[in-house]
Design goal:
globular, 16 helices, five-stranded mixed β-sheet, Rna Polymerase Sigma Factor, Chain: A, Rossmann fold, homodimer, about 375 residues, 3 domains, alpha/beta, seven-stranded parallel β-sheet
Chain lengths: ~375, ~375
């Protein structure tokens, strides 16, 4: 039985992780778990899985739950999150929290020797150099929980990474893929949230529409698979059936396919190096799908993707600034304070104004992250 | 340096194997080689690679060459072929001969502990039970030299075969894929030889048009990957870009893609477990390809595929009979003695008239093969 600590149990990835743990109670044991403000959600998890340690966002919630569940230990805040990450003799931490708060616990969990199933983008985007170095030092596996990186990870099984020619990340093109830039001027929040293939959170759905999401994935792929940006390509594939590909230097291309279902990469990260039957999976029927399409990606149409490549190549604190500015901008768009296209201008300006610090440590990253958010907000 | 014995140096696969050996003279050494009647072709190979042992089809050719190359040993006929297969301390035999003559040398090479790069279909179709048992007994690898089986082999790297849900062999549909059965009544040999994607020999091109080729591949896949026929599917994919796929029980599908180029599977079999850069490869550009299509295969449209599944499931000597009858029928069609659709009737009749012998040994297979050919020919 594999013991699991789960960060972010009540978000989209967390809920699907819980689903899988429910299907395989003989295989996995939930030892420690965190949630944010969704107290009703975490109550159900505690009742069903009886974790030993639970962290919530604030002290009041922790005290409330403590009075209800006398056999469970409750902690809270960022320290609580780190405590869950490092708890006991669990072999694996699933990091499914959103935002830069996920970074510290990941590093702490790596230092305590736990394998990481990583769904938190900020961890690799802002601190890939720290995280991958720590993972190597402590001999832990970084298992991607993300359809694209999981696809690449699967394509690389049994292969020698020196034979890789390039990674090809597929991109659906997001909710506005059939519109020109001119047609993006006055799009609504509702339009932007209508993703053609995947049901996901609001932030990531907007990131798909700007293709910042793919840009963040390019940076994550750079760190996870240790490849220069020149060897990481993006290809538009509207159906999201091929989740990503690896081309080898003998010209052979390996691809991983499936109906869009996040439980596949989540479960693979949990069960790796084995695979387990996926309960209730909708199997891919290519004859039914009938057609797969592919198209070059246009950096002029998707400037966020261009900026992400630039931020990645620049390195240091630049990806942190880009990510922070984007997060604030997307939040302002979702709150109807700025038009869609201003997301891109905000990121562009933030990057142009930033003086890069090379090879930043955790504190520097967190300081630059906080400062970048304030700088964007001050302008409104 | 890996030492190689090559059977069938002057056929389509043999010539491409020679191309690869030419690109990698530091990696591979051609120790022994066979050719049929193409004396000019084998002369060039001897001049360039200086193999120690050469086998040709007949005694006269062997004597002629013996007088020209005094440092080379020449042998001939079926015995010569087996001598080349088992020669010296070579690690690997590439079996690229056509027809049932390839079976004996494969078994002999396995018994002498050499890994087999197998392009000869008859070996697995007629004697898969003997070959795979011998390969296991002598601890040798069977490396597929065929785009479909190589694709599956690549999809299975680093995977546990117990997790396989099914194999999906892709089929282009052949030269008549856009015609109904009614439109096949009076097709010409020239039409049948116009394969849309691959340039191959005449026999295999006709087998693509009837889809007997895919049927033979289904039987080969059954033996190579040790899976029941119920878990081997065929899917029509006109572009021949996805060379085949494996679906796992977690619903993840792995695929291998590339522009149609037989040198990829040949080179992988030679270099396995490593990959080598492929010289002069035309890299896959999916944005340029733009569209991949898929369609269910129709057993009524392609009765040879249905018959191959039946022969495979029946087992014993049935695949031998099917293969022999098909070979004779295709040859008669190519010689304009029968119309295209009679290929299918001949195979159907041969199978219906055969009393199956279970678990045949090599001699039985060879006797049934010869007898089946005579039975078909006697009717014309």
């Amino acid at each position: 039985m594999k013991k699991i600590n789960l960060l972010g149990a009540t978000g989209s990835i967390g809920i699907q992780t819980i689903d899988i743990l429910r299907s395989y109670k003989e295989e996995f044991q939930l030892k420690a778990v965190s949630a944010g403000r969704n107290i009703e959600g975490i109550r159900k998890v505690i009742n069903e899985f009886k974790p030993e340690l639970v962290s919530v966002q604030d002290k009041e919630s922790a005290e409330l739950l403590r009075s209800e569940f006398i056999n469970t230990k409750f902690v809270y805040g960022n320290e609580g999150l780190t405590e869950v990450a490092c708890y006991s003799d669990s072999e694996m931490v699933v990091n499914a929290v959103m935002g830069s708060v996920g970074l510290g616990p990941t590093l702490a969990a790596i230092e305590s020797g736990k394998h990481i199933a990583i769904a938190n983008k900020e961890t690799l985007v802002t601190a890939g150099h720290l995280v991958m170095a720590a993972a190597e030092k402590y001999g832990v596996q970084m298992l991607p929980v993300d359809s694209e990186h999981s696809a690449i990870f699967q394509c690389l099984q049994g292969e020698n990474s020196k034979n890789i020619e390039r990674l090809i990340l597929t991109a659906s093109g997001g909710s506005f893929r059939n519109r020109t830039r001119e047609e993006l001027v006055d799009v609504s929040v509702e339009d932007a949230l209508a993703h053609p293939n995947w049901a996901m959170g609001a932030k990531i759905t907007i990131d798909c529409a700007t293709m910042m999401n793919k840009g963040l994935e390019v940076i994550e792929a750079h760190w996870l698979f240790n490849l220069p940006y020149e060897n990481i390509d993006v290809l538009i594939h509207p159906q999201s059936i091929i989740h990503s590909m690896v081309e080898f230097h003998d010209s052979s291309v390996m691809a991983q396919l499936g109906t869009p279902d996040m439980r596949v990469p989540i479960q693979l990260a949990l069960s790796y190096p084995d695979r387990l039957p996926l309960m209730g999976a909708k199997r891919l029927n290519l004859a039914e799908v009938a057609t797969l399409n592919f198209k070059e990606v246009d950096f002029k149409r998707y400037p966020c993707l261009r900026m992400a490549y630039e931020a990645g190549k620049t390195g240091g604190t630049m990806p942190t600034v880009m990510n922070a500015a984007n997060e604030v901008a997307v939040s302002m768009f979702l709150n109807r304070k700025i038009p869609f296209l201003e997301i891109e201008s905000i990121v562009e300006t933030a990057m142009a104004e930033h003086n890069v610090l090379a090879n930043p440590d955790l504190e520097t990253i967190q300081a630059v992250d906080a400062e970048s958010r304030i700088r964007v907000l001050e302008k409104f």
